[in-house]
Amino acid sequence: MEKQKSLSIPEGYNTVNPFMITDKATLVIQFITEVFGGVESKEALIYDDDGLVLYSEVRG
């Protein structure tokens, strides 16, 4: 039997993390935080030169 490698998962993350692609990211983030009590990770928020959200994280 072959031994499996142990994966290092950062604290606070899961082995499966859902993601969403939308052109209304700011509104989706606002909705998730207000309706579901999600917490936006400000240090993970990345914008492009035009102000478009390229990446963000919201935890529940």
Description:
This protein is of the alpha+beta class and 60 residues long. It has a domain at 25-59. Helix content is 20%, strand content 15%. The protein has one helix and four strands; from the N terminus they run H-E-E-E-E. The protein has one helix at residues 25-36, and strands spanning 39-40, 46-47, 53-55, 58-59. The strands form two sheets. It has a two-stranded antiparallel ribbon with strand order 1-4. Strand 2 and strand 3 (53-55) form a beta hairpin. The longest helix is centred in the middle third of the chain and has 12 residues, at 25-36. The protein is elongated and about 50 Å long. The N and C termini lie far apart (38 Å). The model has no long low-confidence stretch (mean pLDDT 88).
β-sheet strand percentage:
15-25%
Query: Strand arrangement, largest sheet?
Result: 1-4
How do the helices and strands follow one another from N- to C-terminus? HEEEE
Oligomer: single chain
Q: What is the general shape?
A: elongated
Q: Tally of extended strands?
A: 4
What is the typical, i.e. mean, pLDDT? 88
DSSP summary: helix tally: 1
Helical residue percent? 10-25%
Distance between the termini: 38 Å
* Spans where pLDDT lies below 50 across 5 or more residues: none
The helix/strand class is alpha+beta
Short overview:
This protein has 60 residues and is α+β, with helices and mostly antiparallel strands.
List the helices and strands and how they pair.
Layout: H1 25-36, E1 39-40, E2 46-47, E3 53-55, E4 58-59
Antiparallel strand pairs: 1-4, 2-3
